[in-house]
Amino acid sequence: MNCWKIKKLQAQNFRNLKNSIFDFSPGINCILGQNGNGKTNLLEAVFLITNKKSFRKNTDYAQMINIEGESPEIILQSVFESEEGLLPYSLRMSDALEERFFNNKPEKSKTPSTSVFINPFDSYNFHTSSTFRRQWVDSHISLGDKEYRQVLTRFQKAMKFRNSVLGFGGKNASMQLRAIDEQVSEYSAFITQRRFEFLTALNQFITPTFKAIFSEEHTLQLDLDSLFVHWDQKRIFDFYRHQENADIKAEVTQVGVHRDDFIFSFDGLNAFEFCSLGQQKMAFLSLIFAYIELFRYKFTSYPIVLIDDVSGELDSQRWKNLIQYLETKNFQVLITTANEIFGKELEKIPASKKFYMEHGTLKHHG
Ligand SMILES: Nc1ncnc2c1ncn2[C@@H]1O[C@H](COP(=O)(O)OP(=O)(O)OP(=O)(O)O)[C@@H](O)[C@H]1O
What residues does the RecF/RecN/SMC N-terminal domain cover (predicted)? Predict the structure, then answer.
């Protein structure tokens, strides 16, 4: 896989971004400016062209189109660059249509690159919510594994149907459940196996990444907490048959991959219970950068790394550690901050490009 980096971007009618042309560096790009000036919107535009969706939850065209804009469509025009040369890539979105073009030719599925978004609140959500952890793991496996994404979608549909049968009951419920459980058990075995393999691979990178960023020796591990680890389809099917009466009584499927959890441990202790907020953030950042290393290992290419104001909870030494780590890496980073002190640290990075934003416009760059 070739490593395509974003070179230029112009957004029209996208949130509050006002047609400025951003000419990015292939290394570190610092997006600076006060609150509410469009820094996160810029990251969202890059994420949208590379990942085909927003990183914001429950967001679609209606939220993204500029509320004051006169034209009823969003246009994101970009140029990507790799050793192969330049590649113009654009996206047009309206209420009814979404079109993508490579070199002015329509393209349905491919994007030139993938990006990973790091949000300031994700660390807290990851440590406190099992639903968030499950979604995080599922979305990060799915980024590089289309089959996983498809099976997960089929599983979710089957589980929804199973729960509606449980809720509705009736005399045919048992027969219907038997048929659904053929599917549910097949998908569950697949999902569990892929999650287990993903975590085994990821765990090789988390502890070394923590050390590489923060120069401290700690052991970090993310483990799958699931009943079905190493179970085959038949065993899962038998389990659901055995579970049937209890599920009918509860009117819901009580056990399954939809309720699996992931335990993040720090020196063998639960990171949420044991670590300070700063350490939780350090652990979470290490997890993400470990994922980025795993991605490179699997696809011989780095994703574009979008980091939205992560400065909170980290002390100045930890910021410096993070900045130094980014400097040693060969990936493209877009990092934002409204924090003036952190901004000053970012401005010191010699090989980085700085973009100063005001009211959705690029005021100047350096
Ligand atoms: N559809 C839209 N049309 C016009 N403006 C929008 C739209 N959606 C959001 N905005 C505006 O975008 C601004 C927020 O931009 P953004 O989140 O990128 O700010 P930011 O620079 O990252 O701020 P912070 O430093 O506080 O995170 C808000 O002022 C909001 O009103």
Answer: 6-347
